[in-house]
Design goal:
By secondary structure, the chain is an alpha/beta fold. Helix content is about 35%, strand content about 20%. It contains 13 helices and 17 strands. Strands 3-2-1-4-5-6-16-17 form an eight-stranded mixed beta sheet, sandwiched between helices. Strands 11-10-9-12-13-15-14 form a seven-stranded mixed beta sheet, with helices on one face. Strands 7-8 form a two-stranded antiparallel ribbon. It starts with a strand and ends with a strand. Bound molecules: nicotinamide-adenine-dinucleotide (NAD). Nicotinamide-adenine-dinucleotide binds next to helix 6 and helix 7.
């Protein structure tokens, strides 16, 4: 089978779907074509791919001319036209974008959207959302530390004592947990909140304080359990009580990092403008949910804005700002996923629709969308 790796063309996308490590494994049984310069923004020279066994091709047309195409982001409509009918496409295909998915389906490709990978133990090594969220959580803290005009750690100096920064983290999934761990390493004092009950123990085990918003009804308790490892939209009354607690704690914080998401829905609004207005001047908010509409009122997608004396960081795609490691983890996730469908002896591709991981991730096949978000 021929595997093609086109260069990413989405603005700001620096990651690449294969690394020399994964090319070496794939090239043992397949022809691997990598478009010239595909790894440049991840500091991977063409020569390293060549040494691992890839053939470097000059154009996107040649890279898309393959039985299997590995991508980070979904191809643009023009690029979709380069896909061969009946080829396999694996990447972050944005399955909640119905129009884009229709275009892909119409190209006749069999598309796997890594966003839909089932969250079961067997699939952990393929979990692109987790590997990239981990990086985003780390980078959010590093960005906040760079943008705030104070230290994170407590310092005792000859010139007096500097207090530790207070960091509030809202939404403690993969990104939030890494944000807690990173802020802890820098010496901050951390509080965190989430809707799902198991999070409390995880937060406390990392040395942070959990902000509890008790469930008052069976409905709240039931919805808070989420589904498939993900959160569901909480009832309005719970959100109101959470907002009161968040307002109170945010006004005592120097840094707020928000990561709350609900699959296929706009991000829940956790910080209102009145909370931003009441925060200390010079505070920093990083909103990792900005691409899904943001957890913070007034956040501006793609930029850092100052409102009411508070820096609102709405930079997008933070994993792409750590491209070397983001690509290394992403490429391993994709390799592990693809390996499910490649015969280890012959390298032959087999689509087993009875496999939960394969079926759950399949977004389009035979000219039609197989599942809608
Ligand atoms: P996510 O990115 O979808 O959401 C981030 C966090 O926001 C979640 O913890 C969610 O509960 C929280 N959230 C949503 N609405 C909120 C609100 N109104 N207020 C506060 N918080 C809110 O989540 P994620 O990082 O992808 O991970 C979710 C869970 O799945 C985690 O516990 C993770 O460990 C688990 N997980 C399991 C597997 C596996 O078993 N294979 C793989 C990956 C993740």
């Amino acid at each position: 089978m021929r595997i093609g790796v086109p260069a990413e063309t989405r603005a700001g996308e620096t990651r690449v779907a294969v690394t020399p490590e994964t090319v070496k494994k794939l090239a043992a049984k397949n022809e691997v074509r990598v478009q010239a310069g595909a790894g440049a923004a991840s500091s991977i020279p063409d020569g390293d791919y060549e040494a691992a066994g890839a053939k470097i091709v000059a154009s996107a047309t040649e890279a898309y001319d393959a039985g299997i195409v590995l991508k980070v982001r979904s191809p643009s409509p023009d690029e979709s036209g380069l896909l061969k009918k009946d080829s396999i496409l694996i990447g972050l295909l944005e399955p909640f974008n119905a129009a884009q998915l229709e275009t892909l389906a119409a190209s006749g490709v069999t598309g796997f959207a890594m966003e839909w990978l089932p969250r079961i133990s067997r699939a952990q090594s393929m979990d692109v959302l987790s590997s990239q969220a981990n990086i985003a959580g780390y980078k959010a803290v590093v960005l906040a530390a760079a943008e705030i005009g104070r230290f994170f750690p407590m310092l005792m100096t000859a010139a007096g004592t500097v207090k530790a920064a207070r960091v509030l983290i809202l939404g403690v999934g993969v990104a939030g947990l890494q944000a807690i761990a990173t802020a802890k390493r820098l010496g901050a004092v951390i509080e965190a909140s989430d809707v799902r009950p198991p999070v409390k123990e995880q937060v406390e085990s990392l040395g942070a304080k959990f902000l509890d918003v008790p469930y008052l009804t069976d409905e709240e308790r039931e919805i808070a359990k989420g589904s498939g490892g993900y959160a569901r939209s909480m009832p309005a009354d719970w959100m109101r009580r959470q907002a009161e607690l968040v307002h109170q704690r945010a006004t005592q914080s120097d840094v707020v990092i928000t990561t709350a998401l609900i699959p296929g829905r706009p991000a829940p609004r956790l910080i209102k403008e009145e909370t931003v207005r009441a925060m200390k001047p010079g505070s920093v908010i990083v909103d990792l949910a900005v691409e899904q509409g943001g957890n913070v009122e007034g956040i501006e997608r793609g930029r850092i804005a100052v409102k009411h004396g508070v820096k609102l960081i709405g930079l997008e795609n933070l994993p792409a700002s750590v491209p070397f490691d983001a690509s290394a983890l992403y490429a391993r996730n994709l390799f592990n996923f693809l390996s499910l469908m490649l015969d280890p002896k012959t390298g032959e591709f087999k689509l087993d629709r009875t496999d939960e991981v394969i079926a759950g991730t399949l977004a389009c096949a035979d000219g039609a969308v197989t599942k809608r978000g």
